[in-house]
Predict the 3D structure of the following.
Amino acid sequence: MQVTNEKLQQLLVESGHIGQADFETAQKEAQEQNISLEDVLINKNLVTDDQLGKLIADDLGYKFANLKREGIDKNIFKMIPSVVAKNQLAIAFARDENGIKIAMNNPADLDFISLMKKKTGEKVIPYFATKRDILLSLDIYQKKLGEQYDELIKKSVTEAEKKIKKDVPIVKLVDTLLEYAYKNKASDVHIEPHKNKIVVRFRIDGVLHNAMDLPIDLLEAIVSRIKILARLRTDEHFSAQDGKISREFNGEEIDIRVSIVPITSGEKVVMRILSEHARQFTLDTLGLSEKTLEKVDNAVKRPWGMILATGPTGCGKTTTLYSVLKILDRPEVNIATIEDPVEYDIDGVNQIQVNTRTNLTFSKGLRSVVRQDPDIIMVGEIRDEETASTAVNSAMTGHLVLSTLHTNNAATAIPRFLDMKVEPFLIASTINVIIAQRLVRKICEKCRASLTLDQKKINEIKQQLGPRASKILDEHISNNQLTIYQSKGCKACQDTGYSGRIGIFEALKMDDSIKKLIMEKTNAAKIEKQAIENGMTTMIEDGIKKVMAGVTTIDEIIRVTQE
């Protein structure tokens, strides 16, 4: 259902959801780019798809259907044929004694409702759902993954045996693999050759899952197809290659980063799926607490210095820095980045890809960037003394520098700089804030349930978490019992109990007491102790607060902080 700009203004501005200035800016951008105002409002994080859908539904006088949270039976889905569902933007999602519930983008379409009544012989209850939500949910009309691959594999093997060109089935096989990974919200796809088979694994919410086994005979054809898509050399089998694939699923532009390396049993492929949705994160939606967010906001407002994000690979450091860049990205500033790889394109930002073949390293790229008259610089990672020295000197000479380090927590970033021969007074003078983070899986809201722990179990958990986290638990214990949350698993979360991820954070602010310890070359433990005395919430404390709020589980906090 096409909602007029005037109606959107009434729903969002007049009701106080967003400001008039933000609305007018979005409206202008929609006109310039010839796209819908709804899409611009959502992409600019002024409103979520669910929030907008609920507002429109209430205004129309219909109940709102959030299909992403519905575990829909496939037999109910099939009540509306795929072609009809896509044309009508309608999905049958539930059935009870009152009739069939149908999510529609135009719930006032009486002709379609009448048609469904005649077809099913049951009462039809129309709900409003957004176009985005409906298109995403329609993917369930695809065949089951196993059925698709059984069919494709048989065809590929048969044609291979007949020595017939097998490009067509392999093309479809790779396309189906990528599409299925996208539908299941996988961040990475691993194609691993073993002695007698190919193992395909998906990383979903940070955890690898076996997806399927394929015949080893198909390895060469699959890898060749991926190389063609990523514009890599198909005749090179003994060197590592990196490339990029662009795809569109359900109207969403997807970038797929490809890495191919030779291993003893063949060539292994890892593909990272980077969707537009990940680009829409802002600092306040990543999971930063109010106190931590305030520290980061204050550091972002400073015109020079360093903002560091620390943690292991895959903990969301780059996403955090990209969220900061989105705040800083204004026409009057010159922003340059040097990254390996460039994960997302950001309008208005000059992004440079590290290329070791042309000797474009972080350190050399950073030296070149400094000569480009930048106001803000992002260095993907500080790995060596030269990069650290150049980054610190840039921060000293009036630039705001953003970068990442591989350290366990915020305090250990300081000894890491000292190890890279950066003088203590430079560290103390340039760093504004150090953010440490991990990613934890969120409890599935569809099947979340409370769980009461007895004193024995509470004591076991306390022993694992330590005294500071235990203190937070003590505040919630009543009658020697503690109530937390868990999920049993359902269709909506594919029986995992989790859906999506959120960050747990700590932010070490550079104040006089911390600077004094740095000048004395104090170890990380004493620096962390002082930061806690100054009011820093540690990652594990932040995690336990999210546990008590029903966002994640204690098992997740232990997994990402202690394992």
Confidence is low (pLDDT under 50) at residues 163-168. The chain has three domains: 5-140, 142-276, 283-562.
